[in-house]
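Lab notebook, bench 4. Continuing the backlog of folding jobs that were queued last week. Each job is logged with the same field layout so the records can be merged later without manual cleanup. Today's entry covers Alpha-mannosidase, a 825-residue chain. Filled in by technician R.K.

JOB TYPE: sequence-to-structure
TARGET: Alpha-mannosidase
LENGTH: 825
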Amino acid sequence: MADGNNVHLIGNAHLDPVWLWRWQEGYAEIKATFRSALDRLNEFPDFVFTCACAAYYKWVEENAPDMFEEIRSRIAEGRWVVTGGWWIQPDCNLPSGESFARHSLYGQRYFLSKFGVTARVGYNVDSFGHHGMLPQILRRSGMDYYVFMRPEAHEKSLPNDLFWWESEDGSRVMTFRLSDSYGNWGEGGLEGKITKQQKLANQHGHGYMTFYGVGNHGGGPTIANLKLLEELQAREGGGQLKLSSPNQFFAEMERNQPDIPVIHDEMQRHAVGCYSSHSESKALNRRVEHRLLTAEKFAALARIKLDLPYPQQALLQAWENVMFNHFHDIMGGCSVKEAFDDVREFYGESLSIGARSLNAALQKLSWSINTMKPQIKSLSKDKHWQLWEQDDLGTPVVIFNPLSWEVEAPVRLNKLLSGVTDDEGQAVPIQKVRATRTNVDDKWDTLIMAKIPAFGYRVYWAYLDKEQHAPELVEPVKTDSGSLENSLIRIEIDSHTGYIRRIFDKQAGTELLNGSGAVPIVVDEHHSDTWGHGMRQFRDEIGRFGDAEVKVLEQGPLRGTIRVISRYNGSLLRQDISLCHSSAIVEVKVQLDWRERHKMLKLSFPVRAEQARSFSEIPYGFIERAMNGDEVPGQQWVDVSGLVPGETERSCGLSLLNDAKYGYDVLDGDIRMTVVRSPIYADHFGNRDDQVEFMDQGIQEFSYTLVPHQGCWRKAGIVRKANELNVPLLTVWETYHEGVLPQRAQEISISHEAVAATAFKQAEDGAGWIVRCYETAGQEADADIAFPSLGRQWSSSFGKCEIKTFYIPSDASQPVKEVNFIEFE
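JOB STATUS: finished
OUTPUT FIELD FOLLOWS
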């Protein structure tokens, strides 16, 4: 039999650490499964075992060290093969791009430190879909190959199970889709599976892999499995069937170089309900991903400028929690109810670590800013019980910007003030707004528009009693019970339904909506399970929220807000719709009290554009998708743009940004964001009795933003605006003190607006710094990058959608160099 037609028999033990059980049970099962695999290696001299997920190995290391040493020796021998390179087998749509980088960083470095090897093969056999930027992410993680199973053939047709998978930047990985299960089951059992693979190998003229072993709750290859394989090998004469590993399979494919297709696409779509199941864990994931990145950035800055110790081990623990929660049955929201108590605890610990690390850094920086005034002799609270202001000199408040570009955004200062000035003493407009407290008559805050330098800070001065005469706004926001309007845009709200009746771009003279917007549509999904198995769309509309109450909440020169409260059965939806001065962005804060079962809520935004196209964010990239109504995964934004109706040259569009949601559909220009769905916990079309419990009952809060624009989403800066929604400006109240830092600073400069810096952290070797950037618009870009506090400046050329990681040695005589996600050249 030709070498190219071998069937590689992959002994593995797929184990869900969480699914129909909690992580503690998964922890115990890992140890038992690994012991079983070691027993098989002792009993069958030709057996090879394959296993991914660094988290599993760490569990064994900490709880069964003798067994861990045995595994180490088998890995050195080559019979226990490490694959995957990631902390866990994650959901491959919902974690952020930087989260995938961290899976590689921490997973591969763990394998290298413990076993002297890194994974060459990406391995994700049970995840529900695979985003289109994964080939680049894999390549930059030291993995040139990928194995997956879903979507299966009935969900996505591929010309061949073996192919080159290409991402938008041009990166390619050799990829194999399993044509059957990752375990023993299948038509005809294990023997039937193997017979099928032999036929496919001979048909396609190249090798195939078939996986065997008891899976899901672990177990792995059994004695009976291996005896059967021995019998089949003897019957075949030992030729075509090989006890093997993914590494050996791909090495054979590289030698034989079969003629296989190149596929430039995402690998979707399986379990479309998982994009939206269990809203709480998804919202927590978005929040903690951004918090840890922000904490790292300012912790690094405080270490560089002020020698504050960098909390590397604490942040590592936080990331390990987050990566574990990325496991596909957790992130996909399809585990048992009790498991999500653990998810909440893991995210909570990481959020707390991030908060403490961030606070320490910000306070160290703010305390080191020179805010002293000549009149101050010593600190005293004679004037006010909360603020340290003396003699109408103002109180300094430091506002920080974690993003790599200048941000101008509304900032709420939690005191009622008479005036505010910037670091140069220039008065800024203010607005009295309702606070979240009701402390006697102390229930008001002050709103300002702050403009903060890129990855920097700025001191503003808050005055309790002394008015500061800011220039009058040329055209303040106009607000009444049915409309919001400024010099750029007019929004009209229907008083009966609460829907946005109109968004009119005043500068371009164009209507942006093709019908009503922000329409809360209730969809029936009794015919769906938790995963949405067999589903492609959720469009069986059975009702809409209505019976609206509409009232003015804020009415001022800087911002107007209209509150819309609408109802459906026992559920209540509250949307606070805001418009700021000199901005066309519509900001909406949502509180939903959801009491429906086997139903879904979508918010609809029909965009008025001809020959329209729809783009949306995926991890470290974007993708164009057909507007066919299919449920799809997305990250922080989705956009529909096209020609202004009746015109042939001018284009317009509308982007929908969010801070907590991951599922949506677009049909003929109508964007429908999936807000919530309420299936039964861990229901795979089971016997639905009166003991079942439904997801997402009760109150949840999130925000979304509408960005009307002329031209395309790239020119409108949608990537930046989406991050500004998700990464707010941060404030620290200060007092008077001497300091070595100025009252305003910019800590990064990137010359090209399409290049964003997403991460800045201490290098894992402790002897330098890591900054990660990517090109956001799908175009080539030459960028000059500077870090003033490090005294570093360099230039780099980015291909379209290219991710680059730069290592900045602490030794200034050493050059900045590019490294991969593992921080190796």
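OBSERVATION: Residues 478-726 form a domain with the Beta-galactosidase; Chain A, domain 5 fold (CATH 2.70.98.30).
SIGNED: R.K.
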